[in-house]
Amino acid sequence: MLVLDNIYKSYSLDSHSIPVLTEVSLRIETGEMCSITGPSGSGKTTLLNIMSLLDVPSKGRVLYQGQEITHAPEPVQADIRNRAFGFVFQSFNLLPRLSALDNIGLPLRYRGMNKTERRRMAYPLLEMVGLADRGDHLPNALSGGQKQRVAIARALIGKPEIIFADEPTGNLDTDSANNILSLLDELNRETNVSVVVVTHDLNISARYAKQIVVSNGGVTMSKCYPDNERP
C-alpha cells in the first residue's frame, strides 16, 4: 500500500549537509502493524514524517497505492493525508477550546462538512473509545489517557487506511499506555487499518510482528511472528 524507495534525507547545518536517512526502502501492507525504533536522533520521526507526507525526502520516491506522490502538489498530498492517513501524537494535539466531540470531528471540517454532520459521525467513535459520557468536556478536563483516546478517535473519523502514531504513550502512565496500545490492536483487528508506531520503548516494539529499526541512516526489519499470533 505504501512504499518508500531508496529514500535519502539530509539537513543543512552551517553550510554542511548532515545525512539522516540513506538508501531506505520499505513497504507497509494493508492491515499491517509495525513499530519504528532506534536510538535518540537516529531519524525515527523523520522517517515517519516522510512516510506520512509531512516531510519530503532529499532523494528517492514515496508511492501510495502504486502512485508516486513524492513531489505531488501540496493540495494532492493534503488530500491524501486527510482521507487516507490518521495521526496520533505524543502531545495529543487537541484544540483546547473544542470539546472532545468537536475535536474528533475536526478533520471533517476540512472536507466542508457542517458541524451537525461532524458531530453525528464523531459520536460513535467517542463511544468506541469508551468516552461516550465525555463528549462535552474540554481537553483540560480529561486525563492523559482520555486525551489520547480522543486523538485516536479523531484519527479514525476519516476512515484512514494507515494510522501513524509518534510516541503515542510517551506522556501516559503504564496502565493508560497499555490501554492505548490495546485499543490500537483492537482497531487493527476490527477495521484492518494499518498502524505504524514510533517508540523508543523496546517492550512496546516487541508487541508488533514487523519491527523497523533505524540506525546509522539505514533501516533493518524483522518479522518476529505471524500477525495472527501477536501477544
Textual characterization of the structure:
The chain has 231 residues and is of the alpha/beta class. It has a 6-stranded mixed beta sheet, with helices on both faces. The chain has a 4-stranded antiparallel beta sheet with strand order 2-1-4-5, with helices on one face. Residues 225-231 have low confidence and may be disordered. It is built from 7 helices and 10 strands. The chain has one domain (2-97, 144-229): 3-Layer(aba) Sandwich (Rossmann fold), CATH 3.40.50. The radius of gyration is 18 Å and the shape is globular. 38% of the residues are buried. Helix 3 packs across helix 4 (115-128).
Task: Give the SSE map.
Elements: E1 2-13, E2 16-28, E3 33-37, H1 44-51, E4 59-64, E5 67-68, H2 74-84, E6 85-89, H3 100-109, H4 115-128, H5 144-156, E7 162-166, H6 174-191, E8 194-198, H7 202-205, E9 210-215, E10 218-223
Parallel strand pairs: 3-8, 3-9, 6-7, 7-8
Antiparallel strand pairs: 1-2, 1-4, 4-5, 9-10
Helix pairs in contact: 3-4, 3-5, 4-5, 5-6
Assign the CATH architecture.
Answer: 3-Layer(aba) Sandwich
Could you tell me the radius of gyration in angstroms? 18 Å
**Tally of individual domains:** 1
Structural class call reads alpha/beta
Which of globular, elongated, flat, extended, rod-shaped describes the shape? globular
- Total helical elements: 7
Largest sheet: 6 strands, mixed
Beta-strand percentage?
25-35%
State the helicity in percent bands: 25-40%
Uncertain regions spanning at least 5 consecutive residues: 225-231
Trace the largest sheet across and list its strands.
Answer: 6-7-8-3-9-10
Alpha-carbon distance between the two ends: 25 Å
At the fourth CATH level, what is the homologous superfamily? P-loop containing nucleotide triphosphate hydrolases
Can you give the mean pLDDT?
A: 89
- The string of secondary-structure elements, in order, is EEEHEEHEHHHEHEHEE
Number of extended strands:
10
